[in-house]
From TrEMBL:
Pfam families: CDP-OH_P_transf (PF01066). It comes from Jiella pacifica. The lineage of its organism: Bacteria, Pseudomonadati, Pseudomonadota, Alphaproteobacteria, Hyphomicrobiales. This is CDP-diacylglycerol--glycerol-3-phosphate 3-phosphatidyltransferase. InterPro entries: CDP-alcohol_PTase-I, CDP-OH_P_trans, CDP-OH_PTrfase_TM_dom, CDP_ALCOHOL_P_TRANSF_CS, Phosphatidylglycerol_P_synth. One of its GO terms (biological process) is glycerophospholipid biosynthetic process. It is found in: Membrane. Its main location: membrane. It is an enzyme of class 2 (transferase). One of its GO terms (molecular function) is CDP-diacylglycerol-glycerol-3-phosphate 3-phosphatidyltransferase activity. It catalyses: a CDP-1,2-diacyl-sn-glycerol + sn-glycerol 3-phosphate = a 1,2-diacyl-sn-glycero-3-phospho-(1'-sn-glycero-3'-phosphate) + CMP + H(+). Belongs to the CDP-alcohol phosphatidyltransferase class-I family. Its EC number is 2.7.8.5. GO terms for cellular component: membrane. Keywords: Lipid biosynthesis, Lipid metabolism, Membrane, Phospholipid biosynthesis, Phospholipid metabolism, Transferase, Transmembrane, Transmembrane helix.
Length: 185
């Protein structure tokens, strides 16, 4: 168990606390939890690289913690009417699609290498910025109007582009020579 893995686990434990804070209307607390979780994500990655504490567990645990945090905040903000429902659905559906594709390829005996695509990193960044902006608006009683609207559109476009990119990558992988259909065939 490495320090980065412990930080990722702490991020997972922050998810239900953040959901409670949002449901209870404690937007300032939810904002702080979200920001601290985001900083911890950068810190655990830096520690893992700098102190050679990268692990197979961390390879899976870190993105799971990220996805849990983002899914929770988008669903919560959607239910509370702070984000459009369609965006929360798009964000969560993309993650379900990606995880399902990886699991299906694994179950079929043709596992994919876990490697984030550039568009996926851009999507995650946009989702984090949007969530922090909306949480900040709620916490500090401000309305950024057009800025938030632009972030909504950019986040939706990147989310859909990322889902399509992963789907195409998965289809190429599954159709590649030696793939499951050819081996079981």
């Amino acid at each position: 168990m490495t320090i980065p893995n412990l930080i990722s686990i702490a991020r997972l434990f922050a998810v239900p606390v953040m959901i409670w804070a949002l449901i209870d209307g404690r937007f300032g607390l939810a904002f702080v939890i979200f920001v601290v979780a985001g900083i911890s994500d950068a810190v655990d990655g830096a520690i893992a690289r700098h102190f050679d504490q990268q692990s197979t567990l961390g390879l899976y645990l870190d993105p799971i913690a990220d996805k849990a945090l983002l899914a929770a905040v988008f669903i919560s903000l959607g239910v509370l009417g702070r984000l459009p429902d369609w965006l929360a659905i798009a964000v969560v559906s993309r993650d379900v699609l990606i995880v399902s594709a990886f699991l299906l390829s694994y179950v079929m005996g043709w596992p994919m290498e876990v490697r984030p695509l550039f568009v996926s990193k851009a999507t995650t960044a946009a989702q984090i910025v949007l969530a922090a902006t909306v949480l900040g608006e709620a916490a500090f009683g401000i309305d950024l109007g057009l800025v938030t609207d632009i972030l909504l559109v950019v986040t939706l476009i990147l989310t859909v582009a990322s889902a399509v990119a992963y789907l195409l990558d998965w289809l190429r992988h599954m159709a590649s020579p030696g793939g499951p259909e050819r081996r079981n065939g």
